[in-house]
Amino acid sequence: MGSTPSHETPQWRTALRAAFPHTIPVLTGYMFLGIAYGVLMNAKGYGPLWSVLMSAIAFGGSMQFVAISLLTVAFDPVQAFLLSCMVNARHLFYGLSMLEKYRGLGKARIPLIYILSDETFSLVSTVEPPENVDRRQFYLSISLLDYFYWVGGTALGGFLGDFISFDTTGLDFALTAPFVVLFLEQWKKKENRPAGAIGIGATVLCLLLFGADNLVIPAMAVIVAILLGGRKKLCT
User: Fold this and answer.
1) Running DSSP on this structure, what letter comes out for residue 215?
2) Rounded CA separation 159/164 (Å)
3) Quick check: 203 and 183 in contact, CB under 8 A?
4) Cα dihedral 216, 67, 25, 21 sign
5) Phi-psi region of 59 (alpha: psi -120 to 50; beta: other; left: phi over 0)
6) CB atoms within 10 A of CB 167
7) Which of 91, 153, 161, 210 could form a disulfide with 39 if both were Cys (CB 3.0 to 4.6 A apart)?
8) 32 neighbors 42 (Cβ within 8 angstroms)
9) CB–CB of 34/65 below 8 Å?
């Protein structure tokens, strides 16, 4: 009683099939990016186990690349904490904007919040599940697929690092690739272009005012202020 009939496809499998096509751009980006991270970790003396543990537990994306340098110098916990807050401050805004999206999903919100990344946020915030797909299973499928892409790419890069020897200078620039792809996908929709233009303008302004090392939090604050201000005007 209550079991799924043999002729019916389980909800999670249906959701997985519906979610996978949306994650293909993330798959291509995360695999190459994860490989790059694994190779860089190996080049610094940290084998596949350490790189996979970092990706599986920390799952910090850009912060993981920053952490490579932190692991190879004298440990400064205060600097590491402040730098982590600066690099990952954007997730505060991501989380706030996902409150309504994840409402009513029960315990699924815990893994959804834990493995939320830039690319996953971009997908989940714009893609709606098909009518025949459970909303919770759909969002979980997207998030878990992206998570395993990253961890899998890291593992592959960590193992390849033992057999490949080359100059890794500039390899961390691969971090930019997924953001470019996702931005272009968003730009194709006319209704998304004003938000994209606001993001570019705010980022350039804060880059000029605060410099490349301190622009993240001010840029996010300016973007949120503009979007909230525009929303209030539309509602009045």
Assistant:
1) -
2) 9
3) no
4) negative
5) left
6) 7
7) 161
8) no
9) no
Tell me the pLDDT tens digit for each residue of 112-155. Answer: 988 988 889 888 888 888 888 899 999 999 999 999 999 999 99
Residue 95 CB partners (closer than 8 Å, separation 6+)? 113, 116
Considering only CA atoms, which of 133, 61, 69 is closest in space to residue 91?
Answer: 61
In the prediction, which pLDDT does 213 show? 74
Query: Secondary structure of the chain: what % helix, strand, coil (to 5)?
Result: 75, 0, 25
Distance between CA atoms of residues 128 and 145, nearest Å? 16
Q: Are 47 and 158 in contact (CB under 8 A)?
A: yes
Q: Cα–Cα distances in Å, from 154 out to 27, 59, 80, 175, 219?
A: 12, 11, 22, 13, 30
